[in-house]
Amino acid sequence: MKKVLLLFFSIFFVFLSGELVLRYKIKDWPFKAALYTPDYLTKRDKPLRWRFSPTNGRNSLGLRNREIGPKKKGVYRILFLGDSLIWSGETTSGKYFTEVLEDRLNAKYSTRTRSYEVINAGVPGYTTYQELEFLKIYGLDMKPDIVVLGFVFNDLYYKYLHRPTSSKLFGTDLSTRLHYFNTDSFPGIIFARSQFAHEIARRSIILWKMISKQPIYPFERRRDFYLAWKDYGWTHTQKLIGTMQKLLKDKGIPFRILVYPVTDQVNDQYRRINKQYVLYPQRMIRKICDAYGIPELDLTNALYKNGGTTLFRDYLHLNEKGNDVVTNKVERFLVKEMKIVKPGVKTRKLTSH
Is the pTM of this model over 0.85? Predict the structure, then answer.
């Protein structure tokens, strides 16, 4: 019994020491830096943690958009929510894809009684949780006629992907490191808050794959995308999207989802190894959309067929040509979803026989 107790306390001491050393190294509690709250945030903004200041050409909400005033008669408003994929949608025209989209809709489909306004409400680093909160706090006041959620596979982290400090606005929220096993069920729940246990699990997974000579994909090494390839990672996302759908449905506002891939998913090298596994997140978000009856536009195939990895400027963000592809696909998608008809074109009436 003494030997058993000695072994137990030895293991406990080693584990506790490892936990403290790792927490000191990554600056987690009790060594965590204080959360930074910008002066321009209001009490209403508290669930958001941050948004940009109204400087450098941004509007009063810190958005890359003109000021959003009361909606005028005859204006059809399209609100895009999302993170940096919506925010940084530069095209070859020099304009953001939301601006190009607005120009095209008005050039092709506006009438004396109808014009179109596209609002870019993308905020870098936001997750689905923050996008839902932004919709509640500001988006509904904009009186949108349709809401489009830009969804990418690092949006699964709940609640936040980043933690602002006085020195780093986009510092990583350390809770993102705690997802290398299911922390909502046994035995994972025992070590749910242990950074050391999750680090051991992460290294063990990679080591096992190396020993067994299994392919290791870049997304498996990235902490910010790891969750998208785990079934338990989608629990909060499904609830949040369901909440957003109900909120908009109660207001009579159509809801659509725009799905962005990452470079691995349009890379032939990885698709040839195991396409089903590489595109697993696309199937999961489609399953959620089908469950709630939400039309979605998955950009994966369009980007793959029109240039693949050449359309990306980094692991996640598209370059100007990539955003040209997005603009074309989104335009056709919205015209179909909003049932827009060009002025002067008569619609055929269906008759029963």
Answer: yes
